[in-house]
């Protein structure tokens, strides 16, 4: 047994050694391959390493660029910070300037408001002056007209007196002629005196008279007048109607108002239609803060297209075939109305009637 | 030429009396017709039909009621030439206002302007 076993063992060990040799050969072959592989990988790694070096250099370069950029940005930032600081200074200055402007604007608006008030004041004063000027111009015209009329009406009787007194100095005048001349002289002198008296009456009205305005109750005022001319009214079978419910009283100069009413009423009676009884209506109204008096009649009327502005003229008459009269009534009425600060106007239709409208500031 | 007639148109009878006396004193042997109403005077003139070569002097006042002297002259203008040439119109007025004088002189139907009162001298100057 031992020899078999030991030869077996040696075989076995040889087999084992052969096997291990094989194994080692395999291993060596594998190692060679592995080595080649490693070599190849090394080459690759070196390529990679070279690439990385290049990439690194690239990175370093880019970093340098980035740092340059960063440095520039820092400078730019500092610049911005500085500019911001400037801007803030500017803003503060603007805020101050703005407050100043706001204040000045307020001052200007105050000034403008003051100027507007001053302007309105001036405008008002201008209007007053213009009114006054218009008034004065009209009064002047009235006075000129008045002077013209008076001087004409004075000269007329004077011319007659010159002729008549010349005649009287002749000798051998027949008695009848002498008395005619004497009568003519008397008439002319009386006429002259009348004109002078009229002048005086009119001037009295034109100057503001001492007599002051008073509150007059129209109802009683008119019924008093009505009573005083009862006879005249009866004779003409006239009817006078009045209505003062809208404006019962008026502030006026009593004697002027009396003259105005009296003149207008007696005119309406004088210039009545002959075919029907005269009807006179007197009414008072309040319009736009003014008091208006209306006198209406159904008389023969006035042809305003020819009479026009002469209706209220001095010594102007339109119906000389009717009644006596110098043509002063309406002139006086107008003068009296105007001296109390009022206005008078007329509308009329021939053979229908006439309406006088008097307006006063209340 | 000597007028056959003087026609006075004036509402003032005193003036008409004075004019008649002045005309008579001027020894003029003429008719004297006085009208105090201008309308009636105008009617007379428009109906004038004397066929001979008579000449009439018309003394016309300015300041009259109903028609003024100017109104009268305006109406006269519208009359027939045959009638118009028979009348010489003189404005006779108490007015010493230049405007009136001028207006009379400028009116083609008015010969001249005479200031009242009428005297014999003034009547002579018309003839």
Total DSSP helices of chain A: 7
Mean pLDDT of chain A: 89
Q: What's the SSE pattern of chain A?
A: HHEHHEEHEEHHEE
Protein structure class of chain B: alpha/beta
Detailed description of the structure:
The complex is a heterodimer of chains A (362) and B (127). Chain A is 69% helix and 13% strand. In chain A, helix 1 (2-168) runs antiparallel to helix 2 and helix 5 (254-270) runs antiparallel to helix 7 (329-339). By secondary structure, chain A is of the alpha+beta class. With 127 residues, chain B is an alpha/beta fold. In chain B, helix 2 (38-46) runs parallel beside helix 3 (69-77). The mean pLDDT of chain B is 89. In chain B, 40% of the residues lie in helices and 22% in strands. Chain B has six helices and five strands. Chain B has a five-stranded parallel beta sheet with strand order 2-1-3-4-5, sandwiched between helices. Chain B is globular and about 35 Å long.
Structure, briefly:
The complex is a heterodimer of chains A (362) and B (127). Chain A is an alpha+beta fold and 362 residues long.
How do the strands and helices of this protein lay out in sequence?
The complex is a heterodimer of chains A (362) and B (127).
Chain A: H1 2-168, H2 175-206, E1 214-217, H3 218-228, H4 230-236, E2 239-243, E3 249-252, H5 254-270, E4 279-287, E5 290-297, H6 304-307, H7 329-339, E6 343-349, E7 353-361
Parallel strand pairs in A: 2-4
Antiparallel strand pairs in A: 1-3, 4-5, 5-7, 6-7
Helix pairs in contact in A: 1-2, 5-7
Chain B: E1 5-9, H1 13-25, E2 31-35, H2 38-46, E3 56-60, H3 69-77, H4 81-84, E4 87-93, H5 98-106, E5 110-115, H6 120-126
Parallel strand pairs in B: 1-2, 1-3, 3-4, 4-5
């Amino acid at each position: 047994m031992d020899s078999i076993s030991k030869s077996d063992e040696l075989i076995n060990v040889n087999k084992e050694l052969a096997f291990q040799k094989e194994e080692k050969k395999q291993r060596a072959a594998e190692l060679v391959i592995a080595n080649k592989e490693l070599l190849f990988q090394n080459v690759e790694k070196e390529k990679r390493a070279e690439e990385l070096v290049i990439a690194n250099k690239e990175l370093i370069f880019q970093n340098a660029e980035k740092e340059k950029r960063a440095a520039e940005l820092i400078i730019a930032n500092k610049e911005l910070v500085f500019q911001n600081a400037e801007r803030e200074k500017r803003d503060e200055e603007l805020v101050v300037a703005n407050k100043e402007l706001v204040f000045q604007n307020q001052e200007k608006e105050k000034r403008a408001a003051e100027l507007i008030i001053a302007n309105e004041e001036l405008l008002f004063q201008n209007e007053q002056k213009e009114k006054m000027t218009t008034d004065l111009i009209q009064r002047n015209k009235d006075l000129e007209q008045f002077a013209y009329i008076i001087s004409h009406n004075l000269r007329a009787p004077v011319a007659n007196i010159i002729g008549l007194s010349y005649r009287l100095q002749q000798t051998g005048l027949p008695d009848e002629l002498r008395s005619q001349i004497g009568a003519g002289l008397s008439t002319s002198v009386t006429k002259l005196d009348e004109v002078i008296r009229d002048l005086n009456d009119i001037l009295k009205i034109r100057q503001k008279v001492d007599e002051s305005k008073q509150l007059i109750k129209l109802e009683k005022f008119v019924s008093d007048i009505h009573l005083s001319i009862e006879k005249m009214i009866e004779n003409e079978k006239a009817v006078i109607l009045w209505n003062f419910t809208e404006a019962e009283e008026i502030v006026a100069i009593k004697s002027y108002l009396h003259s105005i009413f009296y003149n207008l009423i007696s005119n309406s009676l004088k210039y009545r239609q002959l075919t029907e009884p005269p009807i006179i209506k007197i009414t008072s109204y309040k319009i736009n803060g003014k008091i208006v008096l209306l006198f209406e009649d159904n008389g023969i009327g006035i042809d305003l297209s020819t009479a026009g502005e002469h209706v209220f003229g001095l010594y102007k008459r339109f119906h000389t075939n009717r009644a006596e009269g110098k043509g002063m009534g309406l002139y006086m009425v107008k003068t009296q109305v105007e001296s109390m600060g009022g206005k008078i106007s007329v509308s009329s239709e021939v053979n229908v009637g006439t309406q006088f409208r008097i307006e006063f500031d209340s | 030429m000597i007028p056959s007639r003087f026609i006075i148109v004036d509402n003032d009878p005193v003036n008409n009396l004075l004019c008649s006396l002045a005309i008579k004193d001027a020894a003029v042997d003429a008719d004297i017709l006085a009208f105090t109403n201008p309308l009636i005077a105008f009617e007379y003139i428009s109906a004038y039909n004397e066929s001979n070569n008579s000449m009439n002097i018309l003394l016309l006042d300015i300041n009259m009621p109903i028609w003024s002297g100017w109104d009268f002259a305006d109406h006269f203008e519208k009359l027939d030439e045959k009638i118009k040439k028979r009348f010489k119109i003189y404005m006779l007025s108490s007015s010493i206002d230049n405007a009136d004088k001028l207006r009379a002189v400028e009116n083609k139907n008015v010969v001249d302007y005479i200031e009242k009162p009428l005297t014999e001298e003034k009547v002579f100057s018309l003839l």
